[in-house]
């Protein structure tokens, strides 16, 4: 299936066979472990795959503050933090960590002491 010319996996079984990367954007940052049964098959695939995983904001199954709670939790190769890295990003051991958050107003930087990096030129993401 294609959505906006991006091929989307039709089933969990075909993911590891037909694709080169898994984009992990399964849960939002308000997720609280444990993973519900409806998502077991997808999370199990990510736990067992040899394909690189790119997680958006928080790797699936991780606690937003405590991070990886078990050795079975997803281990992404790439983490794309949104707005600011969450506390769980301290446990990220993958090779690439990017931040997308140029849109955060300076007043919020100061109020929450975000200490965000400078974005070069017109870049919307920065490598951490």
Provide a descriptive summary of the structure in words.
InterPro entries: YjeF_N_dom, YjeF_N_dom_sf, YJEFN_prot_NAXE-like. The protein is α/β, with parallel strands linked by helices and 128 residues long. It has a single domain (2-127), classed as Rossmann fold (3-Layer(aba) Sandwich). It has helices spanning 12-18, 40-48, 106-111; strands spanning 2-3, 6-7, 22-24, 53-56, 78-82, 96-100, 125-127. The strands form 2 sheets. Strands 3-4-5-6-7 form a 5-stranded mixed β-sheet, with no helix packed on it. The protein is globular and about 45 Å long. The chain starts with a strand and ends with a strand.
For the structure shown, list the relevant keywords:
single chain, 128 residues, alpha/beta, Rossmann fold, five-stranded mixed β-sheet, two-stranded antiparallel sheet, NAD(P)HX epimerase activity, NAD(P)H-hydrate epimerase
